[in-house]
Design brief:
The chain is built from 11 helices and 10 strands. It is an alpha/beta fold. It folds into 2 domains: 2-120 and 318-334, ATPase, nucleotide binding domain (Nucleotidyltransferase, domain 5, 2-Layer Sandwich), CATH 3.30.420; 132-315, Nucleotidyltransferase, domain 5, CATH 3.30.420.40. It is globular. The relative contact order is 0.18. The structure holds 5'-O-[(R)-(carboxyoxy)(hydroxy)phosphoryl]adenosine (KG4) and zinc ion. Zinc ion is lined by residues 116, 120, 141, 287-288, 320. 5'-O-[(R)-(carboxyoxy)(hydroxy)phosphoryl]adenosine binds at residues 10, 141-143, 168, 171-172, 183-186, 189, 287-289, 291-292, 319-320.
């Protein structure tokens, strides 16, 4: 069975072909094409929604054609289409969704809606095969920082999430503050490699109380990054008044390394605490920030220390892509999920 995945939730136009083969039902990626809009949004220091949707319109046909070329197949070989329904920027989502609906109708093949974060979680299964379950998975990206329990394949139970900024958003905002450009994650990651991660003391809020806005949720495994961003801002302002600005190269590296240490430790503390509390057989980290070199190294080291198997996606499957959407779509298709022509985008879709 061959699925075409389509992803346009933010600033990447992506199409991929994923095939499920044989008895083991292993997944194989035939094509994975991503057209990034980073160049367009860099000028503005972040994603501009209207520019993003317009660029998706320009790119979507070419990206799907390139995926077919890369996979060396024609549309006749495609058995179904998986598309990101939400969450994301509604104008961006609508481009992929309308394209997928039209193509599914024209070819008379099934259409399967996918939650973007289910896609990130499934990137772990796509890259590593079936994980030992139950697993606790941290999805950490520009828009989300959420912890899920996966008791059986295809079931995702929310254990905690950020109350304010996502970790990737904190990376992007701090990078902007330091004049490092957009997206900020890779730039801070690179600089931090030459810095002293204890040079600057940065506090991090530890959430231990229930969320007044979500009384149903326990909330004690929630994250918070807006205070950390403010702490970096205060540090920069202090340096400016003391005449210590711009920071010399080494000082900038120290600040990036110190920020990164706090972020990574806070993410991993909650991930491993939750894994032990739920008797997990494995842990996973997915989403754009899982491309971070320190997060990747530290989660593996900590897994060895705490005797938990650790799973991370390849770098290509960490940041937004459509292969993960196709993989999630294949799982949902097997569970009987189908969408009709009335399918609509949902900017704040729940998982
Ligand atoms: O999953 P993703 O591609 O898009 C969303 O769903 O948001 O994640 C993008 C986020 C951005 O905030 C970007 O700065 C961050 O992932 N990111 C990184 C790294 N590479 C991308 N953050 C830290 N270190 C990296 N190497
Ligand atoms: Zn994402």
């Amino acid at each position: 069975m061959l699925f075409l995945g389509i992803e346009t939730s933010c600033d990447e136009t992506a199409a991929a072909l994923v095939e499920q083969t044989g008895e083991g039902k292993r997944l194989r990626i035939l094509a994975n094409v991503v057209a990034s809009q980073a160049e367009i949004h860099r000028e503005w220091g972040g994603v501009v929604p209207e520019l993003a949707s317009r660029q998706h319109v320009r790119d979507i046909c070419g990206v799907v054609e390139r995926a077919l070329e890369q996979g060396q197949v024609t549309l006749d070989a495609v058995d179904g289409i998986a598309v990101t329904q939400g969450p994301g920027l509604v104008g961006s989502l609508l481009v992929g969704l309308s394209f997928a609906k039209s193509l599914a109708a024209a070819r008379d093949i099934p259409l399967v809606p996918v939650h973007h974060l289910a896609g990130h979680i499934e990137s772990l299964f796509l890259h590593n095969g079936e994980l030992p379950l139950p697993s606790v998975v941290l999805v950490v990206s520009g828009g989300h920082t959420s912890l899920y329990l996966v008791p059986t394949a295809g079931v995702y139970m929310l254990l905690g999430r950020t109350r304010d900024d996502a970790a990737g958003e904190a990376y992007d905002k701090v990078a902007r503050l330091l004049g490092l450009g957009y997206p900020g994650g890779p730039a801070i990651d690179r600089l931090a490699q030459h810095g002293n991660d204890r040079a600057v003391t940065l506090p991090l809020a530890r959430i231990t109380h229930r969320d007044r806005n979500a009384p149903g949720a326990a909330g004690t495994r929630d994250f918070s990054y807006s205070g950390l961003k403010t702490a970096v801002l205060r540090y920069v302002e202090h340096r400016k008044t003391q005449g210590g600005w711009p920071l010399p190269e080494a000082g900038l590296a120290d600040l990036c390394a110190s920020f990164q240490r706090v972020v990574v430790e806070s993410l991993l503390d909650r991930l491993f605490d939750a894994a032990h509390a739920h008797g997990a057989a494995s842990v996973g980290v997915a989403g754009g920030v899982s491309a971070n070199s320190r997060l990747r190294a530290d989660v593996v080291a900590r897994g060895q220390r705490e005797r938990l198997q650790v799973f991370i996606p390849s770098l290509a499957l960490s940041t937004d892509n459509a292969a993960m959407i196709a993989a999630a779509g294949i799982r949902r298709y097997a569970a009987g999920v189908r969408a009709g022509a009335d399918l609509n985008a949902d900017a704040s879709l729940n998982l």
